[in-house]
């Protein structure tokens, strides 16, 4: 994946697995984790995102269930 990103540098990465919501920018790349849609083992409410993409402009709305 690292080799692929060197050639095709992304502007946005959407990932998961940690079940914790995060939205940060690292090295010019925005990294978004929508959190957990089910039971939240770490406290708080389940979350998701509504993502609208217009070119390189991203409108991200965090949604709590």
Observed structural traits:
65 residues; mainly beta; Purple Acid Phosphatase, chain A, domain 2; 3-stranded mixed sheet; two-stranded antiparallel ribbon; 5 strands; 9% helix
Strand order of the largest sheet: 1-3-2
CATH topology type: Purple Acid Phosphatase, chain A, domain 2
In angstroms, what is the radius of gyration?
A: 13 Å
The CATH homologous superfamily is termed Metallo-dependent phosphatases
CATH class: Alpha Beta
Low-confidence stretches: none
How would you describe the overall organization of this protein?
The chain is mostly beta strands and 65 residues long. The chain has one domain: Metallo-dependent phosphatases (Purple Acid Phosphatase, chain A, domain 2), CATH 3.60.21. The chain is built from one helix and five strands; from the N terminus they run H-E-E-E-E-E. It has one helix spanning 2-7; strands at residues 12-14, 22-26, 29-33, 47-54, 57-64. The longest helix is centred in the N-terminal third of the chain and has 6 residues, at 2-7. The termini are far apart. The mean pLDDT is 88.
């Amino acid at each position: 994946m690292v080799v692929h990103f060197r050639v095709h540098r992304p502007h946005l990465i959407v990932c998961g697995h940690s079940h914790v919501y995060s939205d940060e920018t690292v090295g010019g790349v925005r990294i978004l984790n929508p959190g957990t849609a089910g039971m939240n083992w770490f406290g708080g409410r389940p979350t998701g995102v509504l993502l609208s993409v217009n070119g390189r402009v991203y409108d991200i709305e965090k949604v709590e269930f």
